[in-house]
Structure formats: structure tokens, C-alpha cells
Amino acid sequence: MTDPAKILSDHWGYNSFRPLQREIIDSVLDGHDTVGLLPTGGGKSITFQVPAMIMQGVTIVVTPLVSLMKDQVDNLRSKDIMAVFLHSGLTPSEQRLAFDRCRVGKAKLLYVSPERLANRRFIENLRTLQISLTVVDEAHCISQWGYDFRPSYLNISKIRDIFPDVPILALTASATPEVREDIARHLALREPRLFAQSFSRPNISYVVRHNEDKEGLLKKALRNTSGSAIVYVRSRKRTREIAEMLSDNGISAAAYHAGMDMAEKNDRQKRWKEDEIRVIVATTAFGMGIDKPDVRLVVHYDLPSSLEEYYQEAGRAGRDGKPSIALTIASKYDKGVLTRRLTDAFPSREYIKNIYQLVCVFLDIPMGGGYETVKDFDVDEFCSRFKLNPVMVRSALQILTRAGHFDFAEEGLSRSRIMLKLAKRELYDLRLDPTTDSVLQLILRTYTGLFAEYTPISEELIASRLGISGEEVYQSILKLSREKIVSYIPRSTQPYIYFSSSRKEPKEVIIPMNVYEERKNAMKRRIDAMKDFIYSDEGCRVERMLSYFGEINPTDCGKCDVCRDKMASPTRSQRNSEAAIIYLASQPGGHTVDYIASQLGIRTESIIDTVRKLIDSGKLSIKGTTVYAP
After folding, report:
1. Rounded to 5 degrees, what are φ and ψ at 134?
2. How far is CA 481 from the centre of its chain?
3. Is 423 left (phi over 0), alpha (psi -120 to 50) or beta?
4. pTM of the prediction?
5. For the chain, which terminal residue's Cβ has fewer other Cβ atoms within 10 angstroms, N or C?
6. Rounded Cα–Cα distance for residues 620 and 606 (Å)
7. Residue 253 belongs to what H/E stretch?
């Protein structure tokens, strides 16, 4: 067997693995189901990319974001590692080519979105491959108790059914013990080996500041620090407002959120990575898969709803291991905002049932009708017409989706889709005009699976091959749809709703406990933990965060604002402590040993040996007569 260390050196140029990477790789190579908990920036990708190069066959990687998928594949190809990806935005020919590359050994890694696993044709193609390893990235998304539950992740268990002997590697950067149990259960892991690195990031100072003048404190924090920064907010509007405010004050900044044009997002991300922009003001849409090691400051201008979110976002600071700051700016009103998020996320059952009926009225779905129809759904227009709160409406739509009453997709469809509604034999009896007939015939020749499911098509490709305009293709397909020959979903960036069942009477709209009460209680626990982290000064913030993630007997970090405040006025028994010396030396510009001793109220001679030990261990540095914390 090829040595993993040689693979690492040959393709990545690294001389050694990071903590737990080699242990996870060896577990996978030995055929064990494995769970890896590595902190943000801990090198999760290496743990499956290296064994993929060694094992026979293809490693399938399930990952949630198409942009992240593409970035990883491009990065692997630059290292001469063969990889492909599959998502619903590819044409059928592109998907066939990706599978063909896997079959003939021209690709070692196959990246897929979890939604693909609900596609029967994809599953049939998957059966034709020799799969060596299944990797579930962001595995916490499979747990309904997690902060980022995605129902599509439940499809992943199908891979275990198809390939029962293939080991599964589940990776995440943030999971409580409860979520870890859920991961193992939903993926049907067999005696999984758990490798959990401490969630501690010693190079990050976690600081909470309570201040009503958030803008003023943000400007001060950015002016008193250097290097790249991320400022997290909770709304798209706020990204623009804060970015403009910073720019007006001479701080290079740009907004970033999911609703922006893809080209604009890519441009801003690129300019930030290349240090043309110092500060990105973003919603949570920014960050996953962003590999910029020298972020010195992450600011939470608005509070996250959970420690999982906070840890993921704060952890984007200091991936190069150098000192960095995670700053949270909290006002006295933010605690109430957190409480309201729970109410907004779980409106009453009566409200949810009412939203279901209003959606059906808005989309002209008759009682007992709508089965297997797809409708564009303008959320803003819906809320405006019925004078509804958009946040609560989106929550109700998501709960109705989890309860199985319909499927609400926020981002919309990127490509047109079509499905034949007639049997093959019925097509021979059709009498169509020449243009419509030629469009139908070309669709039948070009695309497969049309009779079984909605299939992505390209109107431009059809127009090019037939030598007609795109508008003629569009009108021809509309005609086929009106005559109930096909079901057609035109290209749209609008959100949409798919009715998997007919419209129900209000009494039949059931919201199960596991969709409502149990998830609401789980969210309340997450919010309560977030409140405690921000608003309580009882004990080290990092110690409380690590306890939340299940670490046993964590110790004070010595660097968060609570620890530093304690060390600022040490007791007699603490005066000669290493922590107090480090704290004083960490002040801007450092201090002389004489000054540190005077602040501790003791003689200089009594701390010289301690200072020397701290310098030897790398915890302090010395320049001339000044010592400082690096």
C-alpha cells in the first residue's frame, strides 16, 4: 500500500499531517466507519483526499454547496488529482461524462450534492461504479437536532443500502454529543471510530463587548487591528449599510450575501482573498469553503442563534495559527432578539395551517388538486398580499416542508425541467405543427428519463440544433404543456413549491411532534446556551463553549475577555502566575519586566525565572528590554 505521508508530500507538499489527520486516514484505510470532529480550518479534506488516492475505485463525497464542490475539484485538479462533481445544474451529457470518467478510472473522487441521491437515475448510475469510500462532509446537517438540519441529507443512507461493505467517513467541525449520536444513527454506522480534536483554538482571543454604539466600536476595532476581517450580520440590507458606513469612514469594505449575482459574489470574494478589499460584511452565506488563512479579525455585529454557528464563523479567523480575534458586539436589546427568533422560527400550529391554506389560494390550488405540480412562489408578493411577517412565513413554509405537505425551495431552479405525461405509445398518435413536433422529437432523442422524472433541459441547445430561435422553442414547449403532453417548469430564479400530495382540508394538515415541539425545544437549548455565552461573565467563555460541545474538564483559556479581566487585578496567590505575566505582556507594544513586576506589586527578581521559562516555551518574546506576547 502506498504510504499516506508520501501522497501528502507529493501532491500537497506537506512534510507532516495535522493532529488526528493520520489517525482518521488509517481508520478509513482499515475499513472502519469513522467520525472525524476537526475544528474549522483543521484540515478535514486531507482525511479523505489522501485515502482516495490509495484505495481502489472511487470515493464519493457528499457536500452541501455547489460552489464549495467546484472549488475543491478545481483545487484537486491543480494538484494532478483526478476529481469530478455532479449537481443538478449540469447538462445530461456533462453528467454522463462525469460517470464515464469514474468508470474508466479517470477520476478518484466524485463530489455530489445530497439532492442528487433522491434521483433514481443517479442511483442507477452509482450502482455501476466501484465505490471505495463514502464521505459525508458537514455531517451535522443530517441531524434534526443540529442547527443546520437539511432534509436532503437523509438521502445519504441510500449509499449504505447500495454499498453495505463500503466504509463511511462523517466529518464535521461542530457537533454536540446528541448530534454525534444522530449522525451515527442516520448513516447506519457500524461501531464507528471517533476522532475528536479539541474545539479549542488557542490562537483566537474570544472577546465580547457590551455597547449600544455598535458602529463606533466596530470602527475602533478595525482601526486598532490590521489584516483581513469578516463582519457577520443577519440581514442582506445590513450588509450593504455596514459596508457603506465603513467605506465612508475610510475602511475598505464590501457587502456579500446569497441574493447577489453570482459573478458579483465571485468578484468580491476574489478581491477580498487578494487583499484588494480588507473587510467583507456578510450574512452566513459567506464562509463555508473559504480558505483564507490570514483573517485576523471576525466580528459578530449581530448575534448568531447558536454556539455551533458562532464557532463555525469565529473559526474563520487565524487559520494560519497566528494570533487573531473573534469579537462579538452585543447590545442590551440583543438578548430579546434571540428570544424572538425562537417565536419567529416556530409560529403557532394554527398560524402554520393558515399559511398552508393561503399558499394554496395564492397559487390557485383547488381542494383535492395540485398533486405533483410545481409553482413559482414569490414570497415577498405573498407576504404583501396577505400582510404577513416574512420571517414567520418562511419558518412556516419550512415546517410544512419537513412535515411533508409540500416542498418549498428558497433558491429556485437554475434550469428548465420537463417530464412526459403521456405513455410512449400515445406519442405516435399526436398531430402537431412541424416546429412543435421537431422540438418534441429532439427532446426525446437528446434526454433520457423523461417518462420517470423531471429532467433538466436547455432551450438554447434545442434551438441551436434545430436552427430556430429560443422563443420558438419556448412557445413550442408551452404548447406541449397546454395540451398536457409534457409538464414543463421554465427556468427560474424564483423560489418554488412542489406539491407532493393534493391540497388538504385544514384538519388534515398535521404537524408532528418531531417536526415542531422537539425541534423547538432543541432550538431553545441552543439559544439559551448562546445567551449564557454572551451575557454571563461567570467563568471563562471558551471553557463554557467547550463544555457545550462535550469536552471533558476543559480549562480556562487565559485569553478571552473574562479571563483577561480576572488577570487584570490578580489576587496575592495569582500574582506570580504565568497567566498574569502573559496578560500584561500582551498589551500593545509589550512591557519591560520591571513594569510587569511593579503592576503585580512584587520584586522584579521574583519573576525573572518565570519570564525566562515563558520565553523558552514560545509563550513570550523579547526585543531589547521589552517582553511581549507574540
Report:
1. -110, 125
2. 37
3. beta
4. 0.70
5. N
6. 17
7. strand 253-256
- Rounded-to-integer distance, Cα 169 and Cα 192, Å: 9
Cβ(56)–Cβ(130) below 8 Å: yes
* Strand-by-strand arrangement of the 228-232 sheet: 204-210, 324-330, 295-300, 228-232, 279-282, 253-256
Can you give the pLDDT at residue 349?
A: 95
Cβ count near 116 (within 10 Å) = 21
Q: Is 408 exposed, middle or buried (0-12, 13-18, 19+ CB in 10 A)?
A: buried
- pLDDT score for 363: 95
pLDDT under 50: residue ranges of the chain? 412-413, 572-576
Map grid coordinates 390550488 to a residue: 365
Helices 561-568 and 541-548, axial angle in degrees (round to 10):
150
Asked whether the beta carbons of 514 and 144 are under 8 A apart, the reply is yes
Q: What's the pLDDT at 262?
A: 64
CA distance 428 to 369: 29
Contact status, residue 57 vs residue 29, Cβ threshold 8 Å: no
Q: d(Cα 224, Cα 220) in Å, to the nearest integer?
A: 6
Please give the radius of gyration of the chain, using alpha carbons only, rounded to the nearest integer: 28
Q: At what angle do helices 541-548 and 307-314 cross, to 10 degrees?
A: 120
Closest by alpha carbon to 550, among 208, 207, 311?
Answer: 311
Q: Please check whether residue 574 is in contact with residue 581, taking contact to mean a CB–CB distance below 8 angstroms.
A: no
